[in-house]
Write a structure and sequence with these properties.
Elements lengths: L8 E4 L14 E8 L4 E6 L3 E7 L3 E5 L3 H18 L2 H6 L1 H6 L3 H10 L12 H20 L3 H11 L2
Antiparallel strand pairs: 1-2, 1-5, 2-3, 3-4
Helix pairs in contact: 4-5
Length: 159
């Protein structure tokens, strides 16, 4: 029998171990999927949905908080919408360069005619490679908050 149910509000422990050192830790989440064995899918506040967390890496805060999950999803959708707006991206160009988000990268890529940064297999490394390519092209324009220059560059170099 599983320790947690869908909708349970949990805290992800700080130290997940070496095999998961790149996973989000020391954060709040909601259980979204009951996986095989002792694995769970979770929705991490301000991040989104992630799989492969183990039962011993989660601590119950409160049962049945699907209401909170709905709020977190709505908040993230609003934040993503803001961060994918090209006017916002170029108004905050230097900050976007310091802490780039997926919605901003996808919006910049779309300007270049790139619709899928994940590749055929949906691999994270392919997304990362493509995202860094897009960001390297946009960097001089972001530094200068030059949306018009970016638009002209994209029109000329669209794939």
């Amino acid at each position: 029998m599983k320790k947690y149910k869908k909708g349970d509000f949990v805290h992800v422990i700080k130290h997940l171990g070496n095999m998961m050192k790149y996973f989000e830790s020391d954060c709040d989440a909601i259980i979204t999927d009951i996986g095989c064995n002792d694995e769970y899918g979770i929705y991490i506040k301000n991040k989104g949905e992630v799989a492969w967390y183990h039962e011993h890496q989660l601590e119950l805060i409160e049962k049945n908080r699907l209401d909170l999950l709905k709020k977190w999803i709505k908040d993230k959708e609003e934040d993503d919408k803001k961060k994918s707006d090209l006017v916002w991206i170029f108004k905050n160009g230097k900050d976007v360069l310091k802490k780039t988000t997926q919605p901003s990268i996808l919006a910049l890529a779309k300007c270049l005619g790139m619709s899928d940064l994940w590749g055929n297999q949906g691999e994270g490394i392919i997304f990362y490679k493509n995202a860094m390519f897009v960001l390297s092209l946009a960097k001089p324009f972001l530094k200068k908050n030059d949306k018009k220059g970016w638009d002209a560059f994209c029109m000329e170099h669209k794939v």
